[in-house]
Amino acid sequence: MTNVVITGTGLYTPEHAIDNAALVAAFNTWVDNENARHADAIARGEREPLAHSSSEFIEKASGIKSRYVLDASGILDPERMCPRLPLRQNDEPSIQCEMAVSAAHQALEKAQVAPDDIELVIVACSNMERAYPALAVEVQQMLGAKGYGFDMNVACSSATFALESAANAIASGSIKRALVVNPEICSAHLNFRDRDSHFIFGDACTAVVLENSVDAVADERFEIIGTRLVTQFSNAIRNNAGFLNRVTDSDPLAIDKLFVQEGRRVFKEVCPMVAQLITDHLTSLELSGSDLKKMWLHQANRHMNDLIARRVLGFEPSEAQAPIILDRYANTSSAGSIIAFHLHHEDMVEGDIGVICSFGAGYSAGSVVVRRQ
Hints:
It is built from 10 helices and 13 strands. It has 373 residues and is an alpha+beta fold. The protein has a domain at 223-372: Peroxisomal Thiolase, Chain A, domain 1 (3-Layer(aba) Sandwich), CATH 3.40.47.10. Strands 5-4-6-7-1-8-13-12-11 form a 9-stranded mixed sheet, sandwiched between helices. The protein has a two-stranded antiparallel ribbon with strand order 2-3. A hairpin with a 3-residue loop joins β12 (353-360) and β13 (364-372). The longest helix is centred in the last third of the chain and has 22 residues, at 263-284. The relative contact order is 0.17. Its EC number is 2.3.1.180. Residues 285-371 form the Beta-ketoacyl-[acyl-carrier-protein] synthase III C-terminal domain.
């Protein structure tokens, strides 16, 4: 039987950070400008005034205190309120490729693996900057990896779905080593003019090296002892941006072409789905919540993570048991659970078991149970 191990992870963090206070100041300035512009309609009762946001509201609702972004100036400009990124020419590396390569080099160094030993590259994230050619093939070329690559989008669950695909390819014997990268530019598809969601996302990229255990030389190895995926269709989280917008005469800048969600519905429906997925997965492996030392969960909302962890563990989780990184990084979509793993795994000793779990739009959720070797 082929054992698949995670031998290295990497993290690209943008240099720009925005705390809640700065984000709220920009949002509230925009709100004041909009209310002033529509003052007559508001006075006549034809239009409701827009409400201010606040740092207290954001932190209480989500646990988020700040986020990293590729560009802060455009987001904090009340006249723009979206990132300002440079247009890349076709002969230049794409933005997501650069992020992926940066994180990948860290993961490869940790795994003590040369780029040309990689036989599969999967770029898995919630949004791609182009339809084709595949970002994964560009990353493959930039790194000097061999074999093949492909892109995958399962929204916030993309990382765990890609880990299963990579692990299966290794277990089948078709390859020995794979690289999964998650370049998330969430700030580019977030509506910074929506009070309910303007604070949710940040940008980051993670990378994971997976190998056949017999070929691994890294000191730190996490054996993948099981994976399980689930999907259930829902419109509660949606983004309608797509290539058909131009032929359906749909406004490409309309609000529905950005991230839109029904937050309370998502909380109510996703939490039990994820807790059940993890519990059933553990049972199938003859394990239970009491066997878990760590739960590296998707980093969307602290309250969601606390509830899911309580249902799986049977008690209130400690910071060590269910690490939170969303307070600094916000929701980085598919990268979130991998950031948690990357930053909070070094206290795991031989035999310790943990679960990497991501969940989000689709609905989708993935569980990857690992054991420290």
